Amino acid sequence: VAVSNSGNIVRSTGNGETWDNATSPTTIHLSDIIFSE
Known about the structure:
Blueprint: E1 2-3, E2 9-11, E3 20-22
Antiparallel strand pairs: 1-2, 2-3
Protein name: Photosynthesis system II assembly factor Ycf48/Hcf136-like domain-containing protein
Region (Disordered): 1-23
Organism: marine metagenome
């Protein structure tokens, strides 16, 4: 998973070989990702 400007979120299911856009709930700049179980 990677995030960037304008709320863009992308994810890879192929070890980074290909990337797909994911639905984002925002349009603000994203700079951090936090995962929890």
